[in-house]
Amino acid sequence: MSDFFTSSVLVATFASAIRLATPYLLASLGETIGQRSGVLNLGVDGVMLLSAFFSYWTVLQTGNLWLAVVVALAVGIIMGVLYGIITVFFEATQGISGIGIFIFGLGFSDLMFRQQVGTPKPVQRLPSVDIPVLADIPYIGEPLFQRSLLTYLAFALVPLTFLLLNKTTFGLNIRSVGENPQAADSLGVSVERTRFAAILIGNSLAGLAGAALVLQLGIFQPNLTQGMGFIAVALVYFGAWRPLGVMGGALLYGLVNATVLQWKSLGIIPVSISDLAGMAPAIVTIGALILLARRVNAPAALTKPFSRH
Amino acid sequence: MLNKVLGGLVPFLAALVAFAFGAIMLIALGANPFEGLEAIFDGAFGSGERLAATAVKATPLILVGAGITIAFRTNVVNIGGESQIIGGALLSTVVALGLPDLPAFLLVPLVIIAGAIGGGILGAIPGALKAYASVNEILSTIMLNLMMVQFMNYLLRGPLIDPYELEAGTRIPQTERLSDNAALPTIIGGTRFHLGVLIAVAAAIVAYIILWRTPVGFRLRAVGHSPKAAKAAGINVKRNITLALAISGSLAGIAGAILVFGSEGQRMVTDGSAAGFTSSAGFNGIVAALFGGLHPLWTIPSAFLFGALLTGATQLQRVLQVPSSLAVALNGIIVIFVISSSRVRTWLQTTLGNTNLFGKEEDDEDDEEINSTAEVTT
What we know:
The complex is a heterodimer.
Chain A: H1 7-36, H2 44-62, H3 65-89, H4 94-116, E1 129-130, H5 141-145, E2 146-147, H6 149-167, H7 169-179, H8 181-186, H9 191-217, H10 228-238, H11 243-266, H12 274-277, H13 280-293
Antiparallel strand pairs in A: 1-2
Chain B: H1 2-28, H2 33-45, H3 48-73, H4 81-98, H5 104-133, H6 137-157, H7 163-168, H8 195-213, H9 215-225, H10 227-232, H11 237-261, H12 274-278, H13 281-291, H14 296-320, H15 325-352, H16 364-375
Helix pairs in contact in B: 1-2, 1-15, 2-3, 2-14, 3-8, 3-11, 3-13, 3-14, 4-5, 4-6, 4-11, 4-13, 5-6, 5-11, 8-9, 8-14, 13-14, 13-15, 14-15
C-alpha cells in the first residue's frame, strides 16, 4: 500500500481518473439535458458504441483525428434524430426504446467492425495539449492541464450546461417541459420541439463521449463500452440532475476505476480477486443511489410521453 | 372488429419494416438479401437438427420473456435478465458441484430450483431496492448486470475453476465437467432438443396462470394498473413489487441453469463478458416479450421466431460471410419499430372508428395489453 502513496503514483492515478471520467462526463451531461426535458435515454451505450466505431474507422481510413470527432458528433446527431422521432412523435415507452437503440448499436457496431476491420488495429490517440504555465504546476499540472482537448471540452461543458439550463429561455423551456409539460404547452412552449432539441444535444454529447473513449484508448473492439453508457445514465441520478453533481459523480467513478487499476498493477489487489475489485464501481453507484434516492426529486415528467389528446 | 384486426397487425407490419431494413443492410454489405433470407431460413428450419437448435436457442428467450411480462404487468421494468441468468447458472453449478452423486431424478429438479433461487435473489434485490429505498429499478438492474459479470469471472477464474486447468497451467476460466446426473435429458435423439425446452414452455404457461388465474397475479396486476388503488384495496404494494421482480428473476435464473445443464460442454465457461455466457438472452428476452405483446403465452412463438433469427444468423455467417451480429442489430430495430407502433395502433383505433370495441366488454387480457405497452413507466 505504501507504493500507492508516493507522489508520482498518486499524480498518475489522478491523471488517469480525469481521463477515465471524460467519456462519462460528456455522456452524463448530455443525458442530464435530455432528462431535464423529461426524456430518459437508455440508448446512450448504443450511441457511444456506434460513434466510437465510426470515429475509430475514420482514423483508420484517414488518420485524421478531428475528422473522427466530427464523424462521432454526426453519428450522435443522427441517432438523436432517430430517438427524437421515436419518443417525441411516436410517444414510445422510453425505457424500452432506449434498450432498442442500445441493442441496435451493440449489434451494428459489432457487425461493421467485423465486416470492415476484423482484427483490432491500434490507431493514433488524441494528443494531450499542455496549457501554458498551468501545465507546469507541480502535482496538479499533469493531471489537470496536460489533457486532450475533448477532456477540456467535457469539463468546460459543466458550467456551460449549468448556464444553459438555468440562465437561458431555452433552459427554462427544457425544465418546464420536464416538470409539467401540460402547463408549458398551455403557455405556448412547444413540448415536442423543446424535447427534440434536448434529445439532439444529449445524443450529440453521447457521440462525443464515444469518440473520447475510443480516441483515448486508440483501439476498438466489439462491445468496447461494456456498459459505460448505462453508468453515464446512473451518474445523472447520482448527480441529482445537476451538472456539478454529475461532474462529481463522473470524477468519483473515474477515481474508483483508476484506483482499482493502479492497485491491480501495483499488486495491492492480488490477481485472484481483481475481478471482485472490478465490481467496486457498480457497488459504489448502487450505494450512492440508495443514499440519494429519497433525497432528490427527479424531473416530474421524466419518462412520461407528452400527448395533447 | 376491423380496427382490432388492423391494430393487431401493426406490430407485424413494424417487424416487416424492420426486416426490410435488414435486407437493406445485407445489400449494403454486398450480399443478396434473398440468399440471406434463404440462409437464415435454412439455418433455422433446414433440418430436424437445426429445428432443435432453434428451439434450444428460443428456450432462454421464452423464460426471460415470460419473466419480463410478469414484471411489466406489475409496472416494473426488468433489464437485469443478464445478471439473473448468471446468478441462476452459478447457484445451480455450485449445487451440481456439491451433490454430484445424487440420482438424476433428484439432481435435475434440484439444479433447476437452484437456478430459480439464484435468479430470484438477483431479481428480489432490485425489487426491494425499488420498493423500500426508491431506487430506480432500471439503474439497479443494470448495475447488477455489470457486477455479476465480474462475479462470474472471479468465481470461474478462482474458486470454481476446474482443478485440471490449474494443473495443466492452461487456466481456461471454466468449471470442471459437471455431474452427468444433472444433465438435462435429450428428448429427441440425435438432436440437442432437451428437457429444458419443455421446462421453458411449461414455465411460460405457469406464468400465464399465475398472472390471470390466481390471487397472486391479480394483486400484481392491480399494482401494475394503479399502485394507489391497489393500496386502497389493502394490497401491499411494496411486497408485490419485490415479488414481481423476484418471480421475473427466477424465470431468468432457470434459463441460466438450462444454459449450463443443457449445453454440450455440461459446464460453465466465461470469455470475460456477459454475452459470452448468456448470448445476450437477458436483452433478447425483452425483445421476445415485447413482440409477444407482453403476454406469457404469445412469448412462446415470439421467442421461437427470434431463436430462429439467431440460429439462422450463424448460417448466414457461414454461407454469405455476413457477421451474425446482423441479427443483434436487427433485434434492436425490431424493438424500436414495435415499441413505436403502439402509438400507430392507438391512432388507427381512434381514427378507424368506434372505440367501443376496445371498451369494457373486451376480455381483461387484451384490454390490458394495450394499456401496458403504452404506459409502462419507471
